[in-house]
Amino acid sequence: MTGYFDPIAPLAFDPDADGPAFRHYDPDRMILGKRAEDQLRFAVAWWHSFGWEGGDPFGGRTFDRPWFPADTMDLAESRVDAAFDFFRILGAPFFCFHDHDVRPEGASLGESRDRLNRIADLMAAKMEGGGPRLLWGTANLFTNRRYMAGAATNPDPDVFAYAAATVRDCLDVTHRLGGENYVLWGGREGYETLLNTDLGRELDQMGRFLSMVVDYKHKIGFKGTILIEPKPQEPTKHQYDFDVATVYGLLSRHGLEGEVKVNIEQGHAILAGHTFEHEIALANALGIFGSIDMNRNDQQSGWDTDQFPNSVPEVALAYYEILRGGGFTTGGTNFDAKIRRQSLDPLDLVMAHAGAMDVCARGLEAAARMLEEDRLEAARRDRYAGWQRPEAQAMLAPGATLEDIADRAVAAGLDPQPVSGRQEILENLVNRYV
Fold this sequence. Notes:
Order of helices and strands: EEHEHHEHHEHEEHEEHEHHEHEHHHHH
Subunit structure: Homotetramer.
CATH class of the largest domain: Alpha Beta
Subcellular location: Cytoplasm
Mean pLDDT: 96
Number of domains: 2
Oligomer: single chain
Helix content: 40-55%
Strand order of the largest sheet: 3-4-5-6-8-10-11-12
Shape: globular
CATH topology of the largest domain: TIM Barrel
Distance between the termini: 42 Å
Cofactor: Mg(2+)
CATH architecture of the largest domain: Alpha-Beta Barrel
Protein name: Xylose isomerase
Catalytic activity: alpha-D-xylose = alpha-D-xylulofuranose
Strand content: 5-15%
Radius of gyration: 24 Å
């Protein structure tokens, strides 16, 4: 045991507390017929919370934790103890991990697999003792220099094979631990210049790899959801999984739109030129919404800074779209966020999560009220009410032709006049809730 978090007691819901507590998140509060914990499905990201050492491109480790540098199995095992102590303090219902987060890579694929299974045994024992569940597992196919030109899209077939073995082993462990999803995180699945890139070949390789992952999921009886996380410009200029629409195009091309969904990150949505709520709404419209990574970017930096969320209005709009789509099923709210490199103390990590959970709870409650009171949806229905008329529906029905529609418009002497979209009024309405 590391004892790293020992001085900190498990957090309780206490709006008036002076010390560490949840001031808004009450896991048992009923929201739209479900407990808040079951609506939000919070998860802790192993990589940022227990793997990141507080460095940046200009300086090395700033955090002094007893399991660093975690390059031996003994240190990796002590980190498991610390992580589950942390989960207990937060009362977090889920966690997420990459294989590389939880064990040092071995000298061979077999040794890496054995080390992962050894750590999974420790996790399983702690989960049986009332620990959190696994929201999703994933494989790190980006850090090692072998992946500098991608994993599934790599020009070297041996790298493709190595990645396949790594994903198989990680999916096996995710299945064994009862994971509810498995994520394919394509950090380097893209290119920097067309001068050395066969774009069509790489897209086909990525689609074939994904198809084989889906086939293997069914072979082993994994009931969870396969997820892709859209990644714009990270770290290449042209990502094959740039945003939700791009991912849907890939899935449709390979007949996988009924098998694979998306895990959408707030920071990546912004870097792709969208809002978080846009990406969620589009995923719902396309039938591929799965889960979210909740964080925020620094508005003064054009990069993915992975900070904890602190804006209730932004979070409320995201959860509004999630609730409009029916809420989470196998997915949840993973905090893909890290404390700043000067936040050195154990309490900093605890309260960063606690504050973010409070923000999300407030956002969820605002979203639920907006949905229950129906004012936004009523305005939306009113805007499209004309499409309920039989003659309007007939224009979209099978057999309708451009000529028929044009002739009707001429015969009716149509001269449609613009109608206000009432954007500012609706924005003001949202502000009443947040």
